[in-house]
Every structure is written in structure tokens, then in C-alpha cells.
Amino acid sequence: MVLSFIIKHLISNICIDMEITKTQSAPLVSVIMPAYKQAQYIGDALDSLLNQTYTNWEVAVVDDGSPDNVESIAKEYAAKDSRIKFHHTENGGVAHARNYGVSVTSGSFILPLDADDLFSPDYIEKCIGIFMSHPKTSLVYCQWEFFGTKKKLTKLKYLGYRDLLIENTIFCSAMFKREDFIKAGGYDEKIPYGYEDWELWLRLLNENSIVYQLEERLFKYRIKDISRSEDANKAKNRLITNNYIYNKHKDKYNRYFPDIISELQQLHRLSLWKEKVQNRPVYKRLWHAIKGDL
Q1: What is the pTM of this model?
Q2: Three-state SS across 197-247?
Q3: What are phi and psi of 23, to 5 degrees?
Q4: Under DSSP, is residue 83 helix (H, G, I), strand (E, B) or coil?
Q5: 48, 12, 40: which is closest to 220 by C-alpha?
Q6: Which tens digits make up the pLDDT trace of 48-107?
Q7: Is-contact 176 138, C-beta < 8 A?
Q8: By three-state DSSP, how is residue 55 classified?
């Protein structure tokens, strides 16, 4: 009995020591959480961090001059877990809040999380696993799903840097290296109507960058009736932002799309063809499909 107790005690101590060593050797992940008018959701976002299987993280909750009680909720969580740190700034927008959050953290890896979104429990662990097994990787993200007022399963696919110049296919909550973020110069705080994450990817990545996408849906993006993304997607605002990004990265667009007129003409022809096919009666669509000459 005594010998059995001693063996169990030794095994227990060895396991504890191994777990401590594992935690100490695991890279620190800095989660950046800007919060503006998100009091009703921020608790869920923080809970999704507390439920992570990977534990060596810190989170900077940046109250971006929020008029609601974000501060009291964040401080309540911070009092229970030392990994949660609360910071207050005057309202300067999400890009400013994220840059500030990075400046007050120290992790080797950066992971943004908006205060109304959620991570699945193993998201951080799987992202870090990719970086550890493939050190040359520049960015890791996953598949996602929408929840809230609209529920939708959708897919993103990174097809290369040229494709990224046309459309953003990487959501804001991707993990990347702090050193790359610093070299890129952080988020652009002057961008007019959102898409600060897309603009950052255009500077943080290049044609040689390795982007890894996990196939699991480990990120949940909340859809609300009124949100910043809805405002950014209004046609007029989107045009202003697109022009801003194009002018800032004009050298890249000219390099990848040297004959922009031909590109637009081809796009126009495809648009006309699509309209023609859609206007065909159903029986004609079926007949052309059988013949294989859509």
C-alpha cells in the first residue's frame, strides 16, 4: 500500500512537472480584443478564450471609448484571470484599438478577436501547432460560420497573393507573427470604411508567403442588424475604401494587372454571358447543359 502510494505520488509529480515545462516552452499568444458597444457580447468572447485547450495566451481588452459598460464586465473577468488585461483609450476606431492592443502585449504571435465573435476551444492550439511544425508559415486561419441574426455556412479559400489583391479571402481573426506585424507597420488607422484587415494582409504577405488554412470551422462571426461591417459594405463606402487601397498599393496592382483594360473587358464579357444564360428558359438551359456547350 505504501509503495503504491509513493509510486502514484511520483507519477503525479512527474506529470505536473511535464505540464509546467510544456506551458513554459509554449509560445505566448497575444489576443487583441477591441471593444466598442459590445457589452452584451464581450462575456461570450472572453468565455471562448477561457475555454481554449491552449492555455499560454494573454488578452488585451481595449475599451475604445465605449459608452456602455464594457469596462465593468472586462474588469470583472480580469479580476478572475490574470491573463486578461483591461485597457482604455479614447475612441479612435478599431485599427487604432488593435494597434494599441499589440503595443501593450508581448506574445510572439498575434491573434485579433472582436468582442462579439467566438473561437472554438481548439482554435489557438491548432494554429500554434501549424506554426510549430511549419516555422516558415506567415499566417494561419480556418473556415468559419456566421451566427446571430443570420446563420450561414460559408467558405473562404486563399488562392494566392494575386487573388488577394482582388478580394479579401482571409478573415480578421487569423494568427500571425508579431515580427511580421511590426515590419508591416501595423493596421492603417487612416483607412476610411473598414477593411483594415485586408489592407494589412496586403502588406504583411507577399507572393512567397505561406498561408495555411485549417479545414475545420473554428471561428464564429456574429451577424447583427446594425454593425460596422454593414456600413463598410455599402456601395459608396466600399468604393471609397477600394480606391484608398488601390492608390496605396498601386505599384502592386500595376505589377500583377499590367493590362487592366483587358481584365475589365474580359470581366464584362463574362458578365454579359452570365446574364444571357440566366435569361434562357429552363428547357434551353437543360438542353445546353446536356450538349455541354453552356
Answers
A1: 0.80
A2: HHHHHHHHCCCCCEEEEEEEEEEEEEECCCCHHHHHCCHHHHHHHHHHHHH
A3: -65, -45
A4: coil
A5: 48
A6: 999 999 999 999 999 999 999 999 999 999 999 999 999 999 999 999 999 999 999 999
A7: yes
A8: coil
